[in-house]
Amino acid sequence: MPEQKSTSHRRPVRSSEQDQLAQVGRLQPQAVELERAVIGACLIEQDAFATVSDFLKPQSFYESKHQVIFQAIQSLAASNAPIDVLTVVDQLQKNGDLDNAGGAAYIAELSRSMLSAAHLEFHARIVAQKALARDLISYTSTIQKLAFDDGQDIQELMQMAEGKLFELSKSNLKKDFTQIDPVINEAYDLLHKAAARADGLSGLSSGFDKLDAMTSGWQNSDLVIIAARPAMGKTAFVLSMARNMVVDKKIPVAMFSLEMSNVQLVNRLLVNVCEIPGEKIKSGQLLPHEWQQLDYKMRELYGVPFYVDDTPSLSVFELRTKARRLVRDYGVQMIIIDYLQLMNASGMSYNSRQEEVSTISRSLKGLAKELNIPIIALSQLNRSVEQRTSNNPDSPDSKRPQLSDLRESGAIEQDADMVCFIHRPEYYKIYKDQYGNDTKGIAEIIIAKHRNGAVGDVRLRFRGEFARFMNIDDSMPPLPTDDGTIKPSPSKFNSEQGDDPFAGLDPQADPSEAPF
């Protein structure tokens, strides 16, 4: 009987892999000899496992017996036991896996397979890259199979594909340690840049002076949560801030609006900038002078570096892709999300909505760090604020929001570098604060968590008819007259030369002839 060749070194091919091989028409990426060399090094070199353990896992190996052996090595390392041929064989016997690993003779043979310990990390990274390539083939094969299914919802399939790729990229993005010297130099350079700025800020200015003084500006890599109950003005606040940044300072900003369409969002921005009541912008019932005012003020918005996206039910994976492009291609320095609870993390499975929100907040923090820009995410508060009864801000039953009021997940508080609440006492018919100050038209920005700075309150002026937040000391837009209209204030819009922008305009002109 002819002698049969041993197949002990060859891993059985699973049916799913057979399907993949049939589709691809070639063997899966593998480096079996390098796998043998890496495991051999771990068996005889004291520090070999520590060198490769950060990026190699049992599933990184193509040969199934190599997976079993590396699992035994990993178990020994976890228990601080020595790693050599004898201890690994003993561990495999305890696990009942010695036969699956090829036997004691094969373990001894591996210890003689090390090519060179000097090249261990290089060899191990090739093994890891081959494993990553196999994972990509597996994911894309699954997606391809589902794409041929006419009953498959393509949008759901895209979400699933994004989720799988996101998981894969997270598991393979490992950042190595850094010796402290270059980090010190970077911190020193940032300190000098802050000192050279007239405003003394180290981050991006919001345009709200007292808020900037407390935060030193929005810092790169920070996740900032702006939270409030409905009708407090969350969107008005970030639009007012965005207007300050993109119009006054020309800082590129992107806003993802999950609640409003782009047109609705821009209408809110027109109300803010043009100082015309929102109901008039919505209905188009403007008086002649208001058409003129609209035409003049909206010129401020043309060409500004403000980018809007109204994709509904945006996933964190879509956001990540779009955010990278915005930063790379358009130099965006800050991203605003309105609002966090409308996002999803589809493509993965969750036991609860709280778990999904935790993934979203954790992903947003990771994205801010990756892109090195501040991300401002709006968030809803739960109803417990409304259920409290006291008007005394020092009372535990105060209407002032608290960190425990963050909706759906405590992970939002944990992941955020800063949590700010918007509180308008006037909304709750509280017209005086504890010091007797008037609260009408006043909004409090409560910094409840600040990982790298002070907490406290900042008072801003709020004009509801203009959906606008302003510095307390800023000059106020004109108040409505008795007939409900707002007359233009030519002096407010004077150019640097003192010219009246409304000069020569007919106040009785037909609004249908306005250029807007």
List keywords for this structure.
nine-stranded mixed sheet, Rossmann fold, 9 strands, disordered C terminus, DNAb Helicase, Chain A, 516 residues, elongated, 2 domains, alpha/beta, disordered N terminus
Helix content: 40-55%
Supply the number of helical segments. Answer: 18
Terminus-to-terminus distance = 94 Å
Class by alpha and beta content: alpha/beta
The CATH class name of the largest domain reads: Alpha Beta
Poorly predicted runs: 1-18, 486-516
Specify the overall morphology. elongated
Instruction: Give Rg in angstroms.
Output: 31 Å
Give the percentage of residues in beta strands. 5-15%
What kind of sheet is the major sheet?
A: 9 strands, mixed
CATH homologous superfamily classification of the largest domain: P-loop containing nucleotide triphosphate hydrolases
Brief overview, please?
With 516 residues, this protein is an alpha/beta fold. The chain has 18 helices and nine strands.
How does this model look, in words?
By secondary structure, the protein is of the alpha/beta class. It is elongated, with a radius of gyration of 31 Å. It has 2 domains: 15-152, DNAb Helicase, Chain A (Orthogonal Bundle); 199-493, Rossmann fold. α2 (32-44) runs parallel beside α4, α4 (64-78) packs across α5 and α11 (234-248) packs across α12. The protein has 18 helices and 9 strands. The longest helix is centred in the first third of the chain and has 28 residues, at 120-147. Strands 3-2-4-5-1-6-7-8-9 form a 9-stranded mixed beta sheet.
